[in-house]
Design a protein that fits this description.
three-stranded parallel sheet; two-stranded antiparallel sheet; 3 helices; 154 residues; alpha/beta; 19% strand; globular
Length: 154
């Protein structure tokens, strides 16, 4: 384990993206245990360990205890990495999403606004986790990139 460094970019677009692994729609509903469409989630938190520290490609996954799961989930949750230095972020999310609760995007927007980061939440009314007609979304992404990448060239 080396030191973790926040990823920096010029602009970000997220579509129905999970932002907090420890909260999947309410207190105590961790992302590794929810029921998704009536099925138990297949997402397990693991860490990599070497079989032989002298061999570069001898790593394997090890299931971790609940306390370590919570620590890893917190570390991998984008909401915990928000700073005023974050790039402009466009979020596109259906308000009927049964996989990633819409409320997660709302909470991320609030935290980004508090940090004074340019953010836009584009709501897809009645849409679940993804939808077939992404043409309008692609156009919106192009506009977002053009607007914010042009500003970095000045």
């Amino acid at each position: 384990g080396g030191e973790r460094v926040p990823l920096r970019g010029q602009v970000v677009v997220g579509c129905f993206t999970p932002i907090e692994s420890r909260n999947n729609g309410g207190a105590g509903k961790g992302a590794w245990t929810p029921l998704l469409n009536g099925l138990t989630s297949s997402f397990y938190v693991c860490r990599l360990e070497p079989d032989d520290k002298k061999k570069l490609y001898s790593w394997h996954f090890v299931k971790v205890c609940p306390d370590e799961q919570k620590a890893i989930a917190k570390e991998m949750s984008p909401i915990n990495w928000v700073t005023s230095e974050a790039p402009p972020i466009l979020i596109i999310h259906g308000d009927a999403d049964r996989v990633v609760p819409f409320e997660q995007s709302q909470r991320l927007v609030k935290k980004l606004e508090e940090a004074k980061v340019p953010v836009k939440l584009e709501v897809r009314k009645g849409k679940d986790h993804g939808w077939p007609d992404t043409g309008p979304d692609l156009a919106l992404m192009r506009e977002w990139f053009d607007q914010h990448l042009a500003a970095t060239k000045k």
